[in-house]
Amino acid sequence: MSGAFTKSTARNIYFGGSVFFFLLFVALTFDTTRTMPERDHRENLSDKVVLGKSVWEENNCVGCHTILGEGAYFAPELGNVYSRFGNSTEAIKAFIASRPAEGIRGRRSMPQFNLSEEALDAVAEFLKWTSEMDTANWPPNIQG
Amino acid sequence: MKYQSQAVAKPYFYAAIGLFVAQVLFGLIMGLQYVIGDFLFPEIPFNVARMVHTNLLIVWLLFGFMGASYFLVPEESETELFSPLLGYVLFWVFLVAGALTIVGYLAVPYATLAELTGNDLLPTMGREFLEQPTITKIGIVIVALGFLFNIGMTVLKGRKTVISVVLITGLVGLAVFFLFSFYNPSNLALDKYYWWWVVHLWVEGVWELILGAILAFVLIKVTGVDREVIEKWLYVIIAMALITGIIGTGHHYYWIGTPTYWQWWGSIFSAMEPLPFFAMTVFAFNMINRRRRDHPNKVAVLWAQGTAVMSFLGAGVWGFLHTLAPVNYYTHGTQITAAHGHMAFYGAYAMIVMTIISYAMPILRGREAASNRNQVVEMWGFWLMTVSMVFITLFLTAAGVLQVWMQRYGGSEPFMVVQEKIALFYWMRELAGVIFLIGLICYVAAYFLPERDLDVDVVAEAG
After folding, report:
1. Residue A78 sits in which domain range?
2. In this model, does residue B463 exceed pLDDT 70?
């Protein structure tokens, strides 16, 4: 790293390169946000789904589970739990509602969140909505 | 130390180390919960322990970055810090806000914390790494602005070096991209898209500028190599980091409802993300080989070499391992991700903070280097932590490969069935974690054992 390759050459590559690629990133982001409605089926974002996302967030579900692969790896993937539970929001609600408050001896157990019927309904709808997103066929199979 | 106001760094470094210890303790709790599922349940459920573990990591690294800035910017700028008082005030604000947040996580259910802090007014909580109540996030922004003002004014009134300018660019980037944590659309796909603008553009973007700047500073000091050479390397490294890392964000956009062209953009650019880390390794070893002096602080040199190697392995190699879209299709969201996360954060960011602390702390205490005995104890800390982190990563990688095989590739067994089959690797990971803690105890002890000088030179040199 000597001779013709000077510090100012290196600096110019840094400035030029990062500005160029940041602008490219912004351009790709622009295109992505323009075409995303085709995949994220946002037209189905009902009030219930929106409420469900806040129930999801305010109980820190992502602290144990992944959703579309992101989150913690302690508990099953929930991006496709709606399909895994036989396309049934009722099954999801029943599972969440029936968690024992004191856990299960020696095993991982989901806390009992004491969700209201409305909150249960909403979070199940949110998970249903998520499972219907076009995620390029991810996860690879029903187990998530 | 050359400038009195560099002393502002000291409480930041102590806080960083203290929070690091707490982070590791919570890591051990979680590791045990992986194999004894009801450990501490329902008092500290896994999600709470994890939130504490990851948030403490972020907070102690931020303390480390701020301490590093308060230490190196006056020296680079050849002037006293603009306002030491502001530095101390912000220290206490950040520490108290951080502590209250952690207490909040542990004392009340998360939903209650959300309610108490008015999350419904501006919902930002409940997303990975951004679990802090909105009010804490606002506090972080205020602290960051005050900090940037203080550092920026110092740079402006003094000598402007490449190192201080790169450092401050990284810090400004850190603050700017954090603002995306306030954007939380109801559409999960969009939420995820911009969530990565905080998380990825931090750790695979602007934080690399901070890392490079701190490493360059320490290398100038411990090797005595000409600043021109080191600055040129720094530019090359950060150029590669941003050129590959910005579009490399695309490796998070494969499966979240985004266009499939990201599988190409993300794979190609993130496949090149190891390059800046490799350059950093070459850089560190090259500079140390060409050193013009033998600095008495040998353990600081060890940390500098360590962070260069381990960031390449953790961020570079383990990142590459699962970054190509066809591979990531199977590994996404498994223990492979956890393996990469551990070694990358330790190698790149925990170790660079320990590098600067190792270099600066003796100076802040009026010596050029710690006594030989204390340096040896710290080296024990270095090796125990680093080697056990390698094993933590290997065990999690083994767990991840088996998980992918049984759950997704070779078979389709349910998640919990697979988790039980790979429990042996979680036990071994926990054991490695205990060794890590022993290393950490050595590391902390090195700073609190009384200095025992056998070689008189060190004291004489420090004058």
Report:
1. 41-144
2. no
